[in-house]
Each structure stands twice: as C-alpha cells, then as structure tokens.
Amino acid sequence: MPLNDNEAGSGLRLDKLSLGYGSRMIVEELDLKIPPQAFTVLLGRNGSGKSTVLRACAGLLKPKAGTVLLDGKPLARFTARESARRIAILPQGPVAPEGLTVSDLVRQGRYPHRSLFSRWSRADEEAVNEALELTGMADLREQPLENLSGGQRQRAWIAMSLAQQTEILLLDEPTTFLDLAHQAEVMSLITALVKSRRKTVVAVLHDVNQAARHADHIVMFKAGKLVQQGPPNIIMTREHVRRVFDIDPDIIHDPKTNAKFILS
Predict the structure, then answer these.
(1) What CATH number has the domain bearing residue 72?
(2) Tens of pLDDT along 17-60?
(3) For residue 10, which of 85, 123, 168, 248 sits 20 to 30 Å off, Cα-Cα?
(4) Model's pTM, two decimal places?
C-alpha cells in the first residue's frame, strides 16, 4: 500500500535501526515505514530478523543503534504504560496459568488503562465485551483456556490484545501450530480487524501463501537485511522468493482471489 505525504510522520517508522543480542548483530541499519491502517507481513527464513524487528517495534528490545519512531517521536521516550496504550504485541506461543478463563485473560488487556488502585470501570467492561464480540469469543467467555481448541485459544489471546484498544497490533507467528481451518479462522479475523476497525497490524508469518493472499504490504528479509517491500502482487515474484528463501518456485494465481500462489 503506497504512502502519501500526509502519512509520512504517522504510525511506526524504523530509522537506521540496528538490533542484536549481546555482541551478536541481527539487523543492521534498517529503514522501514509501516503503512498505517493496513496489514503488513514480515517474511524471511528463520534467523532473518523478523521477530527481532517485531520486538523492537513494541519497545521490548533496545536498539543497538537507530530509532523506533511512533508518530515521529522516539518510542524510547514513551513510558511502558503509554506505549502499551498505543501498541499491543502477541508473542509466539503465549502461555496462561491453568484454570484461567477467557474472560480472565481478556480482562488483563485493560492493564495499561488502569491505575494501581482504580476500580473496574464501565469503560473496561465495554472494552472487554467488544473484544470478545469481535473475535467471536463472547459465548466462551467463562470457559477455561485449556478447554478450547487451538484456534479458539489464539482468538482469546487476540481478544486480550484488542481489549488494550491500541491502534497498532503486532503478532508473532499467530498461525503457527494451528491446523488449516484454524489458520484460516485467525487470518480472516486479522483482515477483518484491518478493514472494519482500521487497525494497523504487523505479523510475522512463515507461510508465504498466507501472506500473498491476505497482506496489504509485505516486507522481505534475508540475514537481517531488507530485501524488498510493497504490495503482494508486486513483491511475490520468482526472483524475490528465490533470493529470500533459496528456492526456485513456480508462481500461479489463486482462482478465487487472483492473488499469487507459490509452488516450491
């Protein structure tokens, strides 16, 4: 999704960002603008820096150099509570205490909006109810998480993130370990959030065909470097896929959506 001049200072932007753990550098001098109110997918092989970039976007990883900017202001200048009101992140494979119900989990999303001694408010309750409705989890609100299917659990975690009422939602491999039906469930929910709620969603995915079918914007990484970015129909070429994934694919068009489909 192309950007216009009015969007230049809005949302998330990475400026000469270098990231790593200890002495090991993962990403170096990355410049990236996340399109607002769109679904962006980060693609690349394992170890390419996708999840590292996502963590930096949430303020969970301090840059070695460069800056993460939120609406033109360095994210490091926001308090943890302030950034949690703007950006929600759902890590890969989150784990909840045994016996926690869906409602209990979703209520935790209200933490950034509540002070230490504040009472549960009508606004809190409305945010939780809306998140449950949006994710189709309202009828399961009193169910323990361990009683749910994989797709239902993932929707419950997404509902918790939605209860934060942030404009930006970061998802690290939200469909990993789900069967095909539950993957489709989660992807449909994500695209609906972008279209109907005008959320900015950034997700790390392994499935290039999910990205090609559902994303508005794709960013390809290899060895910590940005290889290419743009709309799926432009980015998903044989040359780009070969360069990033070291495979020589055939590319066809999905007969339902006309999106490109990768055959390795």
Answers:
(1) 3.40.50.300
(2) 999 999 999 999 999 999 999 999 999 999 999 999 999 999 99
(3) 123
(4) 0.90
